[in-house]
Design goal:
about 190 residues; little secondary structure; 8-stranded mixed sheet; elongated
Length: about 190
């Protein structure tokens, strides 16, 4: 068992995965992982020029499982990974695009650390309080946001009754005034 964990994403394994001998050449990587049984370790150390990482349909217990060595990543896909929180996302401090659709995320406070974030896909998560958008308002570069498929599209909070005149687009725009696109439609269209 110990050998497996050490071996999981070693330089040799990464070379096999990517098909290149010089891991400095790797700019994008797509893989499916299960961190319940294997650690990813510090694989980012071996891939200093990695800018895009696609982990869709993986099983990630936590974003922390990615380690702290991905500060150079620009784009990260973690759709359908079973994530329930974003603790640890701050170590991906250079992120410009984050695609985390179809997880179980309800707390967006960790995203305030991503000061370069321009694109965020939160479709089909568990965001049930419109006030979570306040955190995204602190991401000054955020221009494109997808939130359809969350409870906030129907009502402002889990406790509130559905209001016929509630317009989530107008509410989100109020909380994130610099947003240009909401659910792939210009944010100015409410």
């Amino acid at each position: 068992g110990e050998l497996l964990v050490d071996e999981f994403l070693s330089p040799r394994k990464l070379k096999d995965l990517t098909g290149v001998d010089d891991l400095q050449q790797v700019k994008a990587l797509e893989m499916r992982v299960d961190t319940r049984e294997n650690s990813l370790g510090s694989f980012g150390v071996y891939l200093p020029n990695l800018r895009e990482l696609k982990l869709n349909n993986s099983l990630l217990v936590s974003v922390r499982d990615l380690g702290t060595t991905l500060s150079h990543l620009h784009v990260l896909w973690m759709a359908r990974c079973g994530l329930s929180d974003l603790d640890g996302i701050s170590s991906c401090s250079s992120l410009r695009e984050l695609y985390i659709a179809y997880n179980n995320i309800s707390d967006l406070s960790q995203l305030t650390w991503l000061e370069h974030l321009k694109v965020l896909d939160l479709e089909g998560n568990n965001i049930e309080d419109i006030n979570q958008m306040l955190y995204l308002g602190l991401c000054g570069q955020l221009r494109r946001l997808t939130v359809e498929g969350n409870l906030i599209c129907l009502k402002p909070s889990a406790e509130s009754a559905e209001e016929p005149d509630y317009n989530y687009r107008a509410e989100v725009k109020k909380l994130i005034p610099h947003l240009e696109y909401l659910d792939d439609i210009p944010a100015s269209q409410t």
